[in-house]
Amino acid sequence: MKPQVSILVAAYNAEKTLPRCLDSLCQQSLQEVEILCVDDCSTDDTLELLHNRAVMDSRIRVLQTPVNSGQAVARNLALKEAIAPFVCMVDADDWLSHDALQSALDVFATYPKTDCCVLHLMLHYEDGREEDYGLPVQLEMGEMLTGRKAFELCLDSWQLHGLYVTRTAFHQQYPFDTATRLYSDDNTSRIHYLHSREVRACAGVYYYRKHADSMTLGFNLRRFDFMEALLSLKFALKGESLPKDILKRAEGARWMNFIACYRLYLQHQKDISAEDRATLLERFNTILHTFRPSQLSRKYRWKPGYWLFLSLRLFDLQQRTYQFFKKTSLN
Prior knowledge:
About 45% of the residues lie in helices and about 15% in strands. It has helices at about 20-25, 45-55, 70-80, 100-110, 135-140, 145-155, 170-175, 185-195, 225-240, 245-270, 275-290, 300, 310-330; strands at about 5-10, 35-40, 60-65, 85-90, 95, 115-125, 130, 165, 200-210. It is built from 13 helices and nine strands. It is an alpha/beta fold. It has two domains: about 5-210, Spore Coat Polysaccharide Biosynthesis Protein SpsA, Chain A; about 220-330, no CATH class. It is globular.
C-alpha cells in the first residue's frame, strides 16, 4: 500500500496526549498514510509508547533525534524520510477529524495548481470548550487565494493560520526554519504560502489543544525567541522579489513584535534573574540594531511609544515613559 500522505509528528514528553493524536491519524478515512513520529529525547514514556503503537500499526515509523533539538529539527528529520506525494504536520497533543486528509486530497485532485490546502482550525480548551479559529472569507466561500495574498494574511497577526496539507517535494524544497527552538517554524508557513501557486481550504478539521503547559502560552523566557525567529524571516525575505510595501509590512510586524517583547520584559523583569536579564538586554540590543527607519512605515516615526531609537537606553526610556503615562491615564 503506497502512502498518499506522510504525517509528521514531533513528540517530546507527550505520553499523555499522544494516544488521542495517533488514534485520529490511524483512523483516518484515508488509510494510505505513513505516520512519521520523532521522539525528541523525551524523559517520560513517549518513546516506549511510540514503539508499542508501531507494533500495532505498521504505518507508524519511529525516529529519534540524537539530542533534544526542538520541534522544527524533529520535523525536518521526519520530512527527509517522507515518501508520500503529500505531507502535513500534526503536533503530538493535537488531532485531526476523521475525514481531514481525504478532504484535502480531494481538493488537490480537483484543483491541480493548489500547493497548500488549509485545514479548518478548531481550538480545544482544557474545559472542553471549542472555538473555530476561522478562515479568510475567500477560503470560506470555496475560492482560492494567490500565494502572495495568503502570505500577506498570515503575516498580519495570522489572519490565515499555518496548518495545512502541502506537496512533499514543495515542503522538502522549503523545510522547517530551525533558527530558534520556538516560533521560527512559523516562518516556514509564510514561505510556503508565498511560493504557492494557489492556496485553498478543505472541510477537514485540525483540533489544536490549548493548555497551560504549552511553551507558547504564559510567561517563559523562550517567548523572546520571537525576536530571532522574525529576524530569520527578514533574512529569508531579502532573497525574494517582493514589493517594498510588503517588505515594510513585514518589518512593521517585526517591529511591533520587538516592542511587545520588550514590554513583556519590563512587566516580568523582577521575576528574571540578574544573569538572564543581562543576556536578554544583550539580545534586545543586537536585534534593535537590525532595524532601519527607512524600512519602516512612517506611522512608526510619529506614534508615541513606537519610535525607533537605535540606542537601547533611549528605547528603554521611551518604553518606561509610555508605560507610565498609560497607567496614569487608566487611573
